Amino acid sequence: MDMTPSSGRTGLSRGARGMWLGLLGVALFGLTLPMTRLATGTADAPQLSPWFVTFGRAVLAGVLSAATLWFTRAPLPTRAQWKPLGLALLGNAIGYPLLLGSALRIVPSGHAAVVTALLPLATAVAAAVLLRQRARPAFWVCAVAGSLLVVAFMLLRSGGGVRGAGAADLLLLGAVLAAAVGYVAGAQLTPALGAERVICWVCVAALPITVPGMLWTWPGTPVSAAAWGGFVYVGLFSMWIGFFAWFRGLALGGALRVSQTQLLQPFFSIAAALPLLGEPIEPATLGFALAVVATVLAGRRLSAPRA
To answer: What whole-number distance in Å separates Cα of residue 283 and Cα of residue 137?
Structure first.
């Protein structure tokens, strides 16, 4: 039987390997929300502070990134490349984890999964605005529809007795905005540096900020082993290994095809919250997540360029 060399060695085609690696990256990212809540604890039972989790996870990823860049003899970024690296640093290494961790002390990770499901659409909007990329009117309709769904969910939750949900939702929206701007800034550098090196340089460039920040916010009271486990996860997998699997999957399977697996990320978060945190899967949360993901899928299809 005629087989390509890649499929003959592994039993999987290049595209199939890309899809599985992309799915692995999405699953690793999907656990970020419950693991972050495990690390920070709740307002009634706090563990590690969101500031420490933010700085510490970036330090862990930064040390690994520095070793990777040294072993691969990666060239230094040019002067022009440091500005988008700085934006990606502020958005992805500082802004997103700090705002997310602060919000997850207030609301369950399932709640956060619905709001952060807007991230793919927010990234597309940021690209349209910051990079002056034209989008079809139908895309903007989907963006508005997804935003209105999230607003309706937030109003429902805040009116349903979820204490502090309003403030947490503002933090989550800020986290989505920070991550979207960071992703767009990093995407500007991907053709020149390579996707894996972008995240490595972001983590390394953050070390002068994150190392003093981690030492300054080091916990002064005992912290549970589960909280430390959540912290190690977000530093090792959410901030580093997940990106390697994700970017490699995009390269092997094609960005357009593999990126659709990102639509599953909110459901990984909701499903993982049950065994990790004991959070029940609420029908309303699942329903709104499905509706938001549907608008994201429609927006992606409508934003694709015409053949």
So the answer is: 32
